[in-house]
Amino acid sequence: MKKYFLMIIALLMLFFITHTTIIVIDGLNDEVENVDVAVVLGNRVNLNGEPSDRLAARLDKAISLYNEDYFDQIIVSGGIGKEGFDEAKVMKDYLVEHNVKKKHVIVDSDGYNTQMTAENTKAIMEEESYGSVMVITQFYHISRTKLAFSKVGIERVYGAHADFFELRDFYSTIREFPAYYKYLIQ
Question: Tens of pLDDT along 94-104?
Answer without folding.
Answer: 999 999 999 99
